[in-house]
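Inverse folding, one chain.
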């Protein structure tokens, strides 16, 4: 698949020389798609796709639990991105001073061929959803 490349702040990327919009494909497009799914709160798009996005019940609030949050992240990616075969190794790190969190996950996909540095030594894709997630 191919898509337009999106910056972390949500803007599309424009080539500096040609001013054309930059496209993304393969591993990079899958990672971008997974990040977008996790960046949507479930129910946020009730009219278009009511089941799209990450449920925040176990992610926000006083009863926060890393294990429940990791399971919700894994379930969301497995159920909403058809190219994802498996998700494991979900790790969430929090920066309380900045009030942000980063999500790290190993994503297995038979649709995407190995393209280099986004893979660990077992051939698993490494997804990072970063500073702007605000979880």
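Residues assigned per position:
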């Amino acid at each position: 698949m191919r898509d337009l490349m999106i910056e972390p702040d949500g803007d599309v990327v424009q080539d500096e020389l040609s001013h054309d919009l930059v496209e993304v494909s393969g591993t990079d497009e899958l990672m971008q798609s997974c990040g977008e799914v996790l960046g949507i709160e479930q129910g946020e798009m009730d009219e278009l796709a009511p089941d799209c996005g990450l449920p925040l019940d176990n992610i926000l609030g006083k009863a926060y639990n890393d294990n429940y949050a990791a399971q919700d992240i894994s379930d969301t990616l497995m159920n909403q991105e058809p190219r994802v075969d498996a998700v494991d190794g979900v790790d969430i790190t929090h920066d309380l001073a900045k009030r942000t969190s980063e999500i790290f996950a190993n994503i297995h996909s038979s649709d995407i061929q190995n393209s280099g540095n986004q893979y660990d030594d077992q051939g698993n894709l490494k997804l990072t959803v970063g500073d702007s997630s605000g979880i």
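The CA atoms of residues 77 and 96 lie 25 Å apart. The radius of gyration is 15 Å.
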